[in-house]
């Protein structure tokens, strides 16, 4: 397919104030149209994928939430039972509370550690490449695998942690980190997430840090700003979009926690580390009630959309 | 050299070394634990990984390779065409489609997987590796399309125009001129798709039912969740190492271009 006028900016928009002689209008419009057609053609696979596997399921989950929808057998409409029953479901209440608590703790801890790492490896010094690789390497291990790794690492059977602490004298006797108490189970999961995701978030924060021009720091230094002042008044404000991105990803990721609790703590002890997504899974595939699972999904979805819209609004206002 | 800069340099080395040890030790430990046997070192744990009742089988590995290959190929195909379309063309609905693709990030995983399970059943892809791969491709799209659009936008227009003047048609321009120019982006997208699909757990857990179809990740996790009595931790660590080695090797070889693709393309928008 040849274009008579190679459009400089690749746009179909008519360019103002022609200076050079141009082909007749009919030709140009035809070329622009065929180019638009070509673009639409290239975008078709994306449109099919997004339509079929994203938009349709999104509508379907809403539709399912209005029905009694058993795993096998025909669905029947039961509005609004799936939603009213959420309030009665005790497991949902405790899972919401636990998920929110986990999200707050995890986001704060992960952000502080990831930012610290990014500041540590920000400048080009000797050994920086090695450090960056060391922090990033856990990312190459799948999250489910990492959960199994920590299950062994923290176990009393083959793990070195308990032995080590016993030798120092911090604990005595048998300690079950992943299922002994709700605090230690939560702590185990948090250490795991910290190990697996700190490097990834460090990488994103690093790109933000390196986008700040050196002259800005130079100017702050000439004005006599201390290190802390420079960090608070220069680095943080200029990093705002990157920080917002990282925080959004951390919060969304934590609200949807599944693997770490499913594998490491099995939601225990006594359902004290059962996250919201685990409840959705249980409703659908253990209690075989897809409608109820869809109802909780829609509620979770609504919260996340509202959260993301607020986040976007804050971001836009500040930038 | 002033005293304070000397202290800060020592501080950097000490903190850095301590943190590096903390981050690397779990990996090193799992390798060590997977090789340790009652009497010394050997491959007994790996033997149990492949032979015990709940252990992994060759077809699990074949399943994993199939899903990863389909996901990487599909993601590269859709994201290259889509990224080219978004980066270089204007057509009706372009911005809406781009926004919808990015919205996949906002509407996460678990909330629509229940519906995808039902949907795949309707179109005859229930409990199928192809269905799983299609879902994984869809979840890869926001990152991949964004990345490829930025990569295509960064290619100088003159390159494309001169190819067209030389008589290349659009498809051969894309393949011969544009693809070599966006190679770092392709590597990052492909590597990301591989790492995710190879170790993905939640989507296969929901979409695959029969143990014959299980991916390796699912089979290894099953060794933990299906056991009601004692867990064979050492065999589990062997499974972890077995799953992680291909990823670590790929990551080690491609880290440079991966990080470069990330810093140059992904986050400038």
From TrEMBL, chain A:
<feature type="transmembrane region" description="Helical">
    <location>
        <begin position="36"/>
        <end position="63"/>
    </location>
</feature>
<feature type="region of interest" description="Disordered">
    <location>
        <begin position="1"/>
        <end position="26"/>
    </location>
</feature>
<feature type="transmembrane region" description="Helical">
    <location>
        <begin position="102"/>
        <end position="121"/>
    </location>
</feature>
<comment type="similarity">
    <text>Belongs to the binding-protein-dependent transport system permease family.</text>
</comment>
<keyword id="KW-0812">Transmembrane</keyword>
<keyword id="KW-0472">Membrane</keyword>
<feature type="transmembrane region" description="Helical">
    <location>
        <begin position="242"/>
        <end position="264"/>
    </location>
</feature>
<dbReference type="GO" id="GO:0055085">
    <property type="term" value="P:transmembrane transport"/>
</dbReference>
<dbReference type="InterPro" id="IPR000515">
    <property type="entry name" value="MetI-like"/>
</dbReference>
<dbReference type="Pfam" id="PF00528">
    <property type="entry name" value="BPD_transp_1"/>
</dbReference>
<protein>
    <submittedName>
        <fullName>Sugar ABC transporter permease</fullName>
    </submittedName>
</protein>
<keyword id="KW-0813">Transport</keyword>
<keyword id="KW-1003">Cell membrane</keyword>
<dbReference type="InterPro" id="IPR035906">
    <property type="entry name" value="MetI-like_sf"/>
</dbReference>
<feature type="transmembrane region" description="Helical">
    <location>
        <begin position="284"/>
        <end position="310"/>
    </location>
</feature>
<dbReference type="InterPro" id="IPR051393">
    <property type="entry name" value="ABC_transporter_permease"/>
</dbReference>
<keyword id="KW-1133">Transmembrane helix</keyword>
<feature type="domain" description="ABC transmembrane type-1">
    <location>
        <begin position="96"/>
        <end position="311"/>
    </location>
</feature>
<dbReference type="GO" id="GO:0005886">
    <property type="term" value="C:plasma membrane"/>
</dbReference>
<feature type="transmembrane region" description="Helical">
    <location>
        <begin position="133"/>
        <end position="154"/>
    </location>
</feature>
From TrEMBL, chain B:
<feature type="transmembrane region" description="Helical">
    <location>
        <begin position="61"/>
        <end position="84"/>
    </location>
</feature>
<feature type="transmembrane region" description="Helical">
    <location>
        <begin position="129"/>
        <end position="148"/>
    </location>
</feature>
<dbReference type="GO" id="GO:0005886">
    <property type="term" value="C:plasma membrane"/>
</dbReference>
<protein>
    <submittedName>
        <fullName>Sugar ABC transporter permease</fullName>
    </submittedName>
</protein>
<feature type="transmembrane region" description="Helical">
    <location>
        <begin position="233"/>
        <end position="254"/>
    </location>
</feature>
<dbReference type="Pfam" id="PF00528">
    <property type="entry name" value="BPD_transp_1"/>
</dbReference>
<dbReference type="InterPro" id="IPR035906">
    <property type="entry name" value="MetI-like_sf"/>
</dbReference>
<keyword id="KW-0472">Membrane</keyword>
<dbReference type="InterPro" id="IPR000515">
    <property type="entry name" value="MetI-like"/>
</dbReference>
<feature type="domain" description="ABC transmembrane type-1">
    <location>
        <begin position="61"/>
        <end position="254"/>
    </location>
</feature>
<keyword id="KW-0812">Transmembrane</keyword>
<feature type="transmembrane region" description="Helical">
    <location>
        <begin position="96"/>
        <end position="123"/>
    </location>
</feature>
<dbReference type="GO" id="GO:0055085">
    <property type="term" value="P:transmembrane transport"/>
</dbReference>
<keyword id="KW-1003">Cell membrane</keyword>
<keyword id="KW-1133">Transmembrane helix</keyword>
<comment type="similarity">
    <text>Belongs to the binding-protein-dependent transport system permease family.</text>
</comment>
<feature type="transmembrane region" description="Helical">
    <location>
        <begin position="186"/>
        <end position="208"/>
    </location>
</feature>
<feature type="transmembrane region" description="Helical">
    <location>
        <begin position="12"/>
        <end position="32"/>
    </location>
</feature>
<keyword id="KW-0813">Transport</keyword>
């Amino acid at each position: 397919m040849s274009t008579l006028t190679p459009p400089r900016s690749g746009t179909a928009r008519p360019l103002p104030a022609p200076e050079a002689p141009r082909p007749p209008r009919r030709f140009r419009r035809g070329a622009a149209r065929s180019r638009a057609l070509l673009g639409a053609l290239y975008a078709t696979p994306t449109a099919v994928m997004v339509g079929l596997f994203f938009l349709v399921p999104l509508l379907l989950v809403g539709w399912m939430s209005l029905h009694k929808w058993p795993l096998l057998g025909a669905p029947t409409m039961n509005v609004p039972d799936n939603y009213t029953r959420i309030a009665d479901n005790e497991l949902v209440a405790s899972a919401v509370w636990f998920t929110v608590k986990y999200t707050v703790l995890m986001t704060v801890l992960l952000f502080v550690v990831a930012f610290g790492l990014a500041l540590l490896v920000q400048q080009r010094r000797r050994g920086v490449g090695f450090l960056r690789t060391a922090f990033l390497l856990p990312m190459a291990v799948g999250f489910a695998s990492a959960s199994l790794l920590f299950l062994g690492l923290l176990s009393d059977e083959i793990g070195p942690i308990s032995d080590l602490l016993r030798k120092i004298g911090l604990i005595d006797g048998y300690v079950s980190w992943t299922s002994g108490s709700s605090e230690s189970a939560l702590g185990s999961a948090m250490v795991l997430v910290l190990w697996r995701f700190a490097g990834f978030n460090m990488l994103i924060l690093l790109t933000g840090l390196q986008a700040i021009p050196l002259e800005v720091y130079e100017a702050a230094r000439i004005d006599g700003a201390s290190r802390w002042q420079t960090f608070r008044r220069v680095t943080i404000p200029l990093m705002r979009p990157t920080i917002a991105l990282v925080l959004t990803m951390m919060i969304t990721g934590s609200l949807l926690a599944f693997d770490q609790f499913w594998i490491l703590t099995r939601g225990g002890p006594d359902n004290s580390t059962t996250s919201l997504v685990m409840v959705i899974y249980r409703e659908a595939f253990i209690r075989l009630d897809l409608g109820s699972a869809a109802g909780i999904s829609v509620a979770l979805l609504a919260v996340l959309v509202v959260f993301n819209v607020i986040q976007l609004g804050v971001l836009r206002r500040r930038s | 050299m002033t005293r304070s800069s000397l202290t800060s340099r020592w501080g950097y080395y000490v903190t850095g070394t301590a943190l590096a040890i903390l981050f690397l030790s779990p990996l090193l430990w799992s390798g060590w634990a997977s090789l340790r046997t009652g009497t010394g070192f050997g491959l007994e744990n790996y033997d149990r990984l492949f032979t015990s009742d709940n252990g992994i089988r060759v077809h699990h590995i074949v399943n994993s390779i199939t899903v990863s290959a389909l996901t990487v190929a599909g993601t590269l195909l859709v994201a290259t065409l889509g990224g080219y379309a978004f980066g270089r063309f204007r057509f009706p609905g372009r911005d809406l489609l781009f926004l919808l693709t990015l919205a996949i990030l906002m509407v996460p995983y678990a909330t629509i997987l229940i519906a995808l399970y039902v949907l795949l059943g309707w179109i005859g892809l229930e409990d199928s590796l192809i269905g799983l791969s299609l879902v994984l491709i869809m979840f890869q799209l926001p990152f991949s399309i964004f990345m490829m659009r930025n990569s295509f936008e960064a290619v100088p227009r003159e390159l494309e125009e001169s190819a067209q003047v030389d008589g290349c048609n659009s498809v051969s321009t894309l393949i011969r001129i544009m693809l070599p120019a966006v190679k770092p982006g392709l590597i990052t997208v492909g590597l990301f798709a591989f790492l995710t699909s190879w170790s993905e757990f939640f989507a296969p857990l929901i979409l695959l039912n029969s143990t014959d179809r299980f991916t390796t990740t699912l089979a290894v996790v099953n060794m933990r969740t299906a056991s009601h009595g004692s867990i064979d931790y050492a065999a589990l660590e062997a499974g972890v190492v077995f799953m992680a080695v291909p990823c670590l090797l790929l990551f080690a070889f491609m880290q440079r271009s991966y990080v470069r693709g990330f810093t140059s393309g992904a986050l400038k928008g």
